[in-house]
Amino acid sequence: MSYTYSFEKLEVWKESKELCILIYKLTENFPENEKFGLISQLRRATISISSNIAEGSGRNSNKDKAHFTNIAFSSAIEVLNQLIISQELNFIKTEEYNLVRSKIESITNKLNSLRNYQHSKQ
What we know:
Helices cover 75% and strands 0% of the residues. It has 122 residues and is mainly α. Helix 1 (11-27) packs antiparallel against helix 4. The chain is elongated.
C-alpha cells in the first residue's frame, strides 16, 4: 500500500474531492457556449477547494495552513455563487442545486472548524 498523506485523511478534503467530481458531471449538461464561461469557472473554483486543502497541509506553520484553508473556504463560496447563477439560468435543476448547496454547506462548516483549530495552534 502506498503512503497516505495527511490531507487524504481529512473528511473535508474527501468531501471537496467528491464535490469536484459532482460539479464536473453537472457541467457536462451545460450549454456548449458556456465552455469558457460558467463551466470553466465552476470547475476551476471547485478544484481550488480540495487543492488548497492539500497544499495547506504541506505547510509548516499553522498560520500558513490556516491561510490555505481560508482560500479553500473562499473558493467554496465562489462555487456557491456560480451555482446560484447556474440555477437561475436553468442550467441545473432545483434538486441538483439543493444537493450541491448542502454539500457546500457541509464543506464550509468543516473548513471553518479546521481554520479555527489551526488558528488556535498558532
